């Protein structure tokens, strides 16, 4: 069974980190402020990242390829939503001292996840042929596991890059002592 599908579809992060607030005014609202001395420090960081798993939604797509048993082609609006039950982030930071403050540099971030559902809706498949497009959307959603098995490594790689960029923007602006309690 071969799946060859190239989809360009933007993503919107619905949350960055969604746990109760931090006292520092520099931190984003809802950021988890982990204690470095906490024996569960890694779990705190993992929970923060895991809660930030995005839902892909309402954007443009372009597809031209084969899905499981047949060709699919189209260009238009798409809605994608992935439900993730478990995610494992591997993050490597390097401390960087600037003006007496220690900042972190995100050297590497990888992601592996377990999905419980993937819902896809592509408008204007097959040049807007509604019957073919509706049937393809039903087929895609009924076979989401097979499709995700083929696409998951690419999705994990892209999400890893996105989270690395987000992490880098955050950790390079706020000193370590404001992100983590002693």
UniProtKB/TrEMBL annotation:
SMART domains the record matches: JHBP
Cellular component GO terms, alphabetical: extracellular space
Pfam families: JHBP
InterPro entries: Haemolymph_juvenile_hormone-bd, To_sf
Signal peptide: 1-21
UniProt keyword list: Signal
Superkingdom of origin organism: Eukaryota
Keyword Signal among record annotations: yes
Name the record gives this protein: Haemolymph juvenile hormone binding
UniProt organism field: Cinara cedri
């Amino acid at each position: 069974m071969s799946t060859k599908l190239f989809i360009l579809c933007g993503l919107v992060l619905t949350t960055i980190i969604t746990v109760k607030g931090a006292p520092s005014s520099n931190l984003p609202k809802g950021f988890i402020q982990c204690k470095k001395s906490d024996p569960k420090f890694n779990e705190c960081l993992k929970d923060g990242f895991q809660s930030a798993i995005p839902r892909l939604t309402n954007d443009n797509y372009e597809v031209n390829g084969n899905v499981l048993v047949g060709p699919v082609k189209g260009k238009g609006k798409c809605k994608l939503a992935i439900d993730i039950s478990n995610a494992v982030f591997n993050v490597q930071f390097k401390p960087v001292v600037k003006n007496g403050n220690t900042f972190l540099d995100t050297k590497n971030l990888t992601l592996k996840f377990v999905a419980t559902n993937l819902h896809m809706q592509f408008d204007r498949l097959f040049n807007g042929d509604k019957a073919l497009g509706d049937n393809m959307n039903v087929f895609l959603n009924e076979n989401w596991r097979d499709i995700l098995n083929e696409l998951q490594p690419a999705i994990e790689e892209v999400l890893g890059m996105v989270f690395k960029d987000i992490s880098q923007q955050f950790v390079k602006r706020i000193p370590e002592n404001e992100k983590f309690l002693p």
